[in-house]
Design a protein that fits this description.
Layout (H helix, E strand, L loop, with lengths): L1 H10 L4 E14 L4 E16 L4 E5 L6 H8 L7 E6 L2 E2 L5 H8 L2 E4 L13 H11 L8 H11 L16 H13 L5 E5 L7 H18 L2 E5 L3 H7 L2 E6 L2 E7 H6 L4 H8 L41 H5 L10 E2 L8
Parallel strand pairs: 3-8, 3-9, 6-7, 7-8
Antiparallel strand pairs: 1-2, 1-4, 4-5, 9-10, 10-11
Length: about 325
């Protein structure tokens, strides 16, 4: 998979480029609801994804990774920055303009239970995007719905059932079918297996890999489970408190993590035999600061064992090409 990503990188421009992306949520107070601050969920993020590859995005809960995914597909409004999709900056697109590119950008949600309308049959859920975007003629929609179900491994006869009649894994397959219905180029997978049993997780991950190969899909795969990210990703980006602190190819990231936070994160990755672990477990001290009041300088300096004076005063830039890291301790500052 990594070889494919490198081949894509050599041949193509990025399908998606995120530049200085910020997504803030206002903190309101009082009867007149005046703004007294902001939750800086995403605060100046940069990365790109090439056609046909999977970029895994990992980090602790609350670090902003799901907000990035929702902002890219414009379910959340960006505060600043650019979202370049096929060279077009869609960050400022209006609703009518977004509709023209909506079929190319889809999302698979984390919770298969709440992402489907419980009052609608599966046939109606899958037919709705086909009708809105006029993907196929009206008369061909029932046939297309049946085909979508079969693609994700469900019998076409299930189309007349309601969501409550399915298991969690089956519902997530329906969510995947809904995302595929518009024939997208990029799919944001927002923790698509975290709510599923372990055995079902493997089935869904294999399905996503098979679909990527068959339909030439590009994924932004968001998760906090390192096993799933390692299995499906070509490259991995690590987030901490609204910032991307490291990006590298999957093999390089697990073999040679550079950022102190990444090292701690990967040291907690479970191995079949703990006695074979090559490095000792790194335990991070302290609590994660609030995104409403993040520390000055490097976001991680309050918990970092390598923090220096400059880390408290200045914010490190993400430096490097194949393996990018944002850390003063690594660049000799």
């Amino acid at each position: 998979m990594a070889n494919r990503a490198r081949e894509m990188k050599a041949a193509d421009a990025p399908l998606l480029t995120v530049e200085r992306l910020k997504t803030y949520y206002p903190i309101r107070k009082g009867i007149i609801s005046r703004t007294v601050g902001h939750v800086k969920a995403v605060d100046g993020v940069n990365f790109h994804i090439y056609p046909g590859e999977t970029l895994g995005l990992v980090g602790e809960s609350g670090c902003g990774k799901s907000t990035i995914g929702r902002t890219i597909v414009r379910l959340e409004e960006p505060t600043e920055g650019r979202i370049l999709f096929e060279g077009r900056d869609i960050a400022g697109y209006s609703g009518s303009h977004m509709k023209k590119v909506r079929s190319d950008l889809q999302i698979i949600f984390q919770d298969p239970y709440s992402s489907l309308n419980p009052r609608k049959r599966i046939s109606d859920i899958l037919a709705e995007p086909l009708k809105v975007h006029k993907i196929v003629p009206e008369g061909d929609i029932p046939k297309e719905v049946g085909k979508l179900l079969e693609i994700v491994g469900l019998p076409s006869g299930y189309k007349d059932r309601y969501p409550h009649e399915f298991s969690g894994g089956q519902r997530q397959r329906i969510g995947i079918a809904r995302a595929l219905s518009l024939k997208p180029k990029l799919i944001v997978c927002d923790e698509p297996v975290s709510a599923l049993d372990v055995s079902i997780q493997a089935q869904v991950l294999n399905l996503l890999k098979d679909l990527q190969k068959e339909f030439h899909l590009t994924y932004l795969f968001i998760a906090h489970g390192l096993g799933a990210v390692r299995y499906i990703s070509d490259r991995i980006a690590v987030m901490y408190l609204g910032k991307v602190v490291e990006i590298a190819r999957k093999e390089e990231m697990f073999r040679n993590p550079q950022h102190p936070y990444t090292q701690a994160l990967l040291s907690a990755y479970p191995v079949p035999n703990p006695h074979l672990r090559s490095k000792e477990r790194i335990v991070i001290q302290g609590d994660v600061p609030s995104p409403a009041n993040p520390p000055n300088g490097c976001r991680f300096h309050t918990r970092c064992p390598l923090a220096k004076a400059i880390c408290r005063e200045q914010e490190p830039e993400l430096k490097g090409s194949e393996h990018a890291v944002a850390c003063f301790a690594l660049d000799g500052s």
